[in-house]
Records
---
Amino acid sequence: MATMADVARSAGVSVATVSHVLNGTRPVLPHTRQAVLDAVDRLGYTPNTLARSLVTSRTRSIGLAVSAISNPYFTEILQGVEASALEHGYSLIIADPHDDPEHERKVVQLLHERRVDGLIVAPSANPRELVAYLGRHGVPAVFLDRLLDTPAEGTPAYDQVCAESAEPTARLVTHLAELGHRRIALVAGRPGLSTTRERIAGYRHGLAVSGLPDDERLLVHGNSESADAERATTALVSLAAPPTALVAANNAMTIGALRALRDRGLSVPEDMALCCFDDFAWADLFSPRLTAVAQPSREIGTQAVRVLLERLASPDRPTRTLRLPCTFVHRTSCGCPEETVRSEQPEKFEKHDKPERFGKSEKGTLS
Ligand code: HPA
């Protein structure tokens, strides 16, 4: 197998020059650069990244631990991470922690033992062991989607990237209230996740600004999954005073809610108006078309890589939380007529100025 020294000899340059050309570490004259690349081609040289890692203590790899990879929301995040990693010359090792704290700690340990330069993690609802492990071993990491609890004083221990959750959920509720609904239900996600907390806070805020009472019977738990959301929706429609409108707090729960309504012979939006958090490729194909909040999922992945690389370059910089805005995609499952919604521009949520309205959420920066 050809070595770097073989390439240098064949191109008539030093090994250092070959290294600079291949790693882009210093500018090299165009004809010298070409001579090196020709020699690489001629000899079929491939760099030995293991050997390089031994010298640099860097593997130019990122570990990504994300559960529910088959969920389109997370698949798009993954696409953003992968494309951005590749663009910066990093490879990716992916693990699925199955939203289980113990499994999560294990896969993160495996990724760390592989000596990834840093980690991107969508943490489970109970990431205590994970955080302890990362802290003990000083592993650079960025959290995405689900935020860590912010310490009473100071900033979270890790950089974080997520979408706004509270404001867009409130928007779905106020939209339904403006259409005349007085009993609006929420099918909420898995307890313990910051996204669940924030969407519940947004739901309550939307009710409050619409002058509607917060009836706890209308807040049910779909556990972020289709089957649980189906059960929760069935319970809702069986209430003595059922809701007339429903907000499903993620894409999987929207599917569950739709199943429950269909099985009961209820149609959307005539019997039940429906708005959902998460847009997805088929949301436009349902009949009626689904009114949804679209998360910037791919961008979350892209930004997570950017923040991680900045952390690797400057380990001591203060941590920060990026919150990316969502878009309100107005279709017809809310009950609005097709003619009205077709002519509208998508509505981008501005990042909110008064984040304290939603408790712990912080204003985002896209610096
Ligand atoms: N978080 C945020 N959005 C989502 C999720 C989640 O876990 N699942 C589907 N959409």
---
Amino acid sequence: MLLSRATLAQLPGTVTRHGRAVDAIRTGIVHFGPGAFHRAHQAAYVDRLLDSDPRWGIAAVSLRSGGTTDALKAQDGLYTLAVIDRAPGMQIIAAHSDAIGPGEGARLRKLLASPEVRIATSTVTEKGYCLAGDGSLDFAHPDIVHDRARPAEPTSVIGWIVAGLGDRRAAGLPPFAMLCCDNMSGNGAKLRAACIALAREQDAGLADWIAGEVAFPDSMVDSITPASDAAFLAKVQAALGVEDRAAVQRESFTQWVLQRFDLPDGPDFASVGVTVTNDVRGYEQAKLRILNGAHSTLAYVGLARGHETVFEAMSDSALEAMVSRLVHEDIAASLKPIEGFDKAAYADAVLDRFRNPEIRHLLSQIAWDGSQKLPYRLLDTTREALDAGRGVARLAVPVAAWIAFVRRKAEAGEAITDPLADLLAAAATGADPVTAMLAVKPVFGARLASDARFGAAVREAFQHFAQGDVTPLLSR
Ligand code: CS2
């Protein structure tokens, strides 16, 4: 039997259920990309919001694969959120009022033009936005080529946002606010520029309207959400007494910092724990560079040292000490000061979250999409360190580790999960992998590709990975 409205009443008392009338919930938010992170993070905030304001039910939209939307449909939008540390517990989330899978474009189009829908949100990961290395829309991306040619049948999230906004403008409706919830610096501003650029190809009036009328607030999102593996789903089933194909797990820590934006009579996100502020950039930078930068370092160096999870990598004292120095010295030095924000305390708290034995967060999951992640997580820091005349020997270690990771995978004939997989595999298996990889412009840009100091530091670190003797690098 599946979790659903019909089976809700038979769940054991240990599982928390909301007490509100589900029938009253309306769809006010359209969300692109209902993966585990969205279901564990944004949806949990909205679930609380719905207790007092039923207007903000979420329609979950999957443009590519229908696994999650099928599960949500079969379960009346319900699923379990398991918090797996400090205050462990399971609660049923009922924030999704609708689910739209691939092939349901007509329904999506109608929903995006509904006056009740006032907000759209997205977690489609970095690569989902079809951006080029400089953060602008990549007009050579196959999905964007398609959407330019056939704007009425979009395939990319950018194409869908532009089509939805175009319909609203044509109908004389106000736009929806567009909230990007992915780990990119200046995420709202980048999404805004991409939407305007695509709209400009079709209709200059629409592009100007988007530029003038649509809010694209920046945001910082944070909660460690390991993938829902079979063991976890079995645990949920044992606790619930029914099957739940959309269950998610996360740590108890959760944070969402959202740039204040204008939406008359909009949702009171602050009332459910969202930090609504005028300046998100400092938070966003600290989170991306410290947490995600350390994560990617642990992933690539940790995998080279035979570790499987973040917890195991953090239990490797030499690696832990190097990551701690990287964060406290190299990364902290690059951060903009934020009033009332203690960088060192923040870094310590993040590293402490990584030492959580309850969380089995696979390094291989974090290692995905390195070409999309490294620029925000480590390379901006590196570029700024070079400009300021600071050393980059430690920052070169995760970069060399990534090159070694790609090389190992390519040589073993294993799939590399990365939109640039073929290009990277060819570069990393050539005679001079470091030069070839640093020449990948969408990742390193012209500045890092040609910086002799950086090149030498990466080359030197890479030798250690190539020879399988990484330990000397960890005393840096
Ligand atoms: C991780 C993130 O998978 C990854 O690349 O670094 O998903 C990380 O767990 C989250 O950003 C934490 O908020």
---
Amino acid sequence: MILVLDFGGQYNQLIARRVRENHVYCEVHPQSLSLEKIREMAPKGIILTGGPNSVYTEDAVTCSPEIFNLGIPVLGICYGSQLMAHLLGGKVETAPTSEYGKTEVTLNEAGKSSKLFEGVREKSICWMSHTDYIAKAPEGFTVTAFTPVCPVAAMENAERRLYATQFHPEVMHTEQGKEMLHNFVYSVCECKGDWKMDSFVKTTIAELKAKIGTGKALCALSGGVDSSVAAVLLSKAIGKQLTCVFVDHGLLRKDEGDQVEAVFGPEGPYDLNFIRVNAKDRFYEKLKGVTEPEKKRKIIGEEFIRVFEEEAKKIGAVDYLVQGTIYPDVIESGLGKSAVIKSHHNVGGLPDFVDFKEIVEPLRLLFKDEVRAAGRELGLPEYLVSRQPFPGPGLGIRIIGEVTAEKVKIVQEADAIYREEVAKAGVEGLGQYFAALTNMRSVGVMGDGRTYDYAIALRAVMTSDFMTAESAQLPWEVLQKTTSRIVNEVKGVNRVLYDCTGKPPATIEFE
Ligand code: XMP
């Protein structure tokens, strides 16, 4: 196991992810973790992360210098490297020139024979982000890399297996960062590399079992990847002590409610209590006459919580509330300063009246693709594991203007056709694609008669982070086939449009 000690930098979980990619188990803990605990954990290596402080300020976060005497290899990154230098008698100062972004780093002769840089080119681009730097390496250390303005871009004491880099090997922009972390875990720490997703699954189930014991847990299951994987982990750990409440708000994609029930309900393979609440009439009633997008979102979000609470009350007090929070949610909720473009439901909205003692978030440390891998490991069906993101308010925000049962049906049918055709054509690389119902009606002709029907908008975007997106250039044949099927098969639609707008200026969803 590799232990990452967190000094408050931005990329800490990314380090853990990079280590896990090397099939080595990794945990991130606060920098205050006691020496005793570290000894007990017996990691094969320790990584000290970056952080926002300066080592020489009074309130700088630090760790015990004894960490370097445990005989365990240590890699200090950015702030971690400065801390290593500072605690071992080197000199850290404000750099005359700060370095931010892509920077060419050169290995010196010692660097070329360093275990950390095996297979790394003499000159390569690394990601820098620092205002302080190591002005003088501690005694016993050798400088291994430099830049024109940073004399100690990397240093090491190979005998004591202490390594430090001023740059961030975990960040994608460090061209050979992957090799460096690979070298650290294999050549320096001598890890075996036998950790895989099945180890995460096994360990997590065992931990949940130990933590929850005979207690009861409650999970709001949406049928999305995250809550589904979290629910299965819990069900494997505690079986029927887990109750999953699935609120079907009538704004799901075609047949989705039944698909969720098939997997998690009594006919499915998992051992848990499953409650499906068919609440669509309630939601449609509340949405009657409402056209303003934010109002619709609020109504759906609040009603969702009310329904969930009502079910929870019937169950009574539980010990744990299960949340499918994943790592990007953790980062995003930490930001909170950006302007509210849309009030995302199911992010941070906790029910007030559910009686529970603690929240469990078994996926808190995973990225989305890791969650999917865990889902496959747990035997969840592929259609559920590879499901594209679907917003909490569901089709409610893919129907412009007032939501009615008739409009939901139209958009469900059109969307199902679209997804079928995209899948049939094997189009790859789409971040999200769906049909939306514009509130526009226009004149058409069918047979010999005039029609005055709705226009469906098709959207497909390519994105890696969903913060920005490009409209995808779908093959024309796919668009034509989808269009012809929609106008022929979906009653009430006589026109299909394709949305070519990127984000910004449009958002991915229509409301
Ligand atoms: P926008 O429309 O803001 O969407 O460009 C970005 C991503 O977020 C999803 N989205 C939501 N997800 N609750 C969610 O869980 C919401 O209220 C919500 N609104 C938008 C959207 O589907 C896209 O993936």
